[in-house]
Amino acid sequence: MLLYDPLLEIAMPQYGILIPIPPSRPQKIAGFLAEQRSPLPVLNLKEAAAGIQDGPVMEQKDLERVHDRAFIARLYGRGNEKEKALLAAYELINSDGTYNRYNPSLAEKPLTDLFGVILRHVEGSYLASRLALEKKGKAPYEDFCFFLSGGMHHARYDSGSGFCLVNDIIIAARKLQAEEHAAFIWIIDVDAHKGDGSAELVKFSRDRGETFADKNPGIFTLSVHMARGWPLDRASLSAAEKGRAPLVDSDLDIPIEEKEDHLYITRLADGLAEMERRSGSRKPDLAIVVAGADPYEKDGLPSSALLALSLDQCVERDRLILSFLKKRKIPSAWILAGGYGEHAWEPTARFLDSLAKRPVRTGTD
Q1: What is the CATH architecture assignment of 2-357?
Q2: Is this structure's pTM higher than 0.90?
Q3: What is the strand order of the sheet 332-335 is part of?
Q4: pLDDT tens digit string along 285-314?
Q5: Which pLDDT belongs to residue 137?
Q6: What own/partner pairs with CB < 8 Å and gap ≥ 24 does 47-50 have?
Q7: 334 has which bridge partners?
């Protein structure tokens, strides 16, 4: 199943933001699949919520379960703290107070309006997880839902970071656990950049004793990422605070060095097997896959250039993950995450199109 809502398209120039995030990426993916007559059913957020959740899908308390309450209060408030948080999350202001890739004179909407759209992205990640868990799709992918938005894995406990204001992935996972829809969740993050915010949030929740059941972790985080690119570049690491992202480890980190692209699929396969081994006899109720397209060799963001997978490798990556999960009958919610420039839609579109033309097997694909 696909979860796609045109109302979630974020046209950054409308807010004066000059970052190369094409607003048409989800639209291009959905349009390509329609042209290919993909059999995957498509729902918008309203349709998805109608069969899943009574009342509001996401409330302030759901964000406060994961993030610092004072930080979330500032985002819901009416003062200029919300704008400050957005400026920091999207790296729109320099240390000297000048703007960076931001020109408010070009904005058609107030920057603070962006928060409402971001909340809808958080709702989408949660709804995709519920749709997968409740097998709302059609065979053979009834326990699979791909949300064509979301993936804000850099957001930290008390601040946004790396174009991510709040962490929809961990918010969705913790809400599922609080509502007893899932007890044990795998986070499989294959975005080009380390899922540093997710690692920090899970660590902090463990420190508070909130994501353990009978001394076993309720969330296991796997991140396959560039070994030296942002947020693991020298400048970021030297400025990092001890015990905070990006210095917090995922449960399993798999750093890929530059020019090791030919080893990527093997390293990923080994990582999935190790994640299962470390989980012991516990089978997760759900896997949330942060399926960033920015490892693609044609990605338009300079900070992702240290990974350069071919289109075929990108498709193989996602098919490997899905095959691994289907073999174990683990439902999976997939989130769009990183992808920049005019070619960013291609890896996801080709992967989803392949599911009908070449169904994944329950063994090694």
Answers
A1: 3-Layer(aba) Sandwich (3.40)
A2: yes
A3: 42-43, 2-3, 144-147, 332-335, 286-290, 185-189, 219-226, 252-256
A4: 999 999 999 999 999 998 899 999 999 999
A5: 84
A6: 48/3, 48/124, 48/127, 48/128, 48/130, 48/131, 49/123, 49/127
A7: 146, 289
